[in-house]
Structure formats: C-alpha cells, structure tokens
Design brief:
mainly alpha; 81% helix
Length: 48
C-alpha cells in the first residue's frame, strides 16, 4: 500500500532537511558526502 499524503509530506520534509545539511557543510567534499548519502538513501527507498 502507498503512503498517505501526510506521510509523503513528512518524507519530503526529511529530504529537505538532508539538503539543508548538505548546504551547511564547510567543504566541497563534505557537501558531496552528504549528497551521496542522500542519494544512497533514496535509491534504497526506491528498491524497497
């Protein structure tokens, strides 16, 4: 079964938090590491 609208909004808020964390990193390497973690988590979510 899919997500409710409320669950989906919560999921999107989590993604936005991850992106904010990436923006607040000091170095390019830290930004890339944060984005790679986000990408990994999203890919895992897609695969179930």
């Amino acid at each position: 079964m899919g997500m409710t609208d409320l669950q989906f909004k919560s999921y999107l808020k989590g993604i936005l938090r991850w992106l904010d964390e990436a923006k607040n990193q000091e170095t390019k390497e830290q930004v890339l590491a944060a984005l790679e973690k986000l990408e990994k988590d999203l890919r895992e979510d897609l695969q179930g």
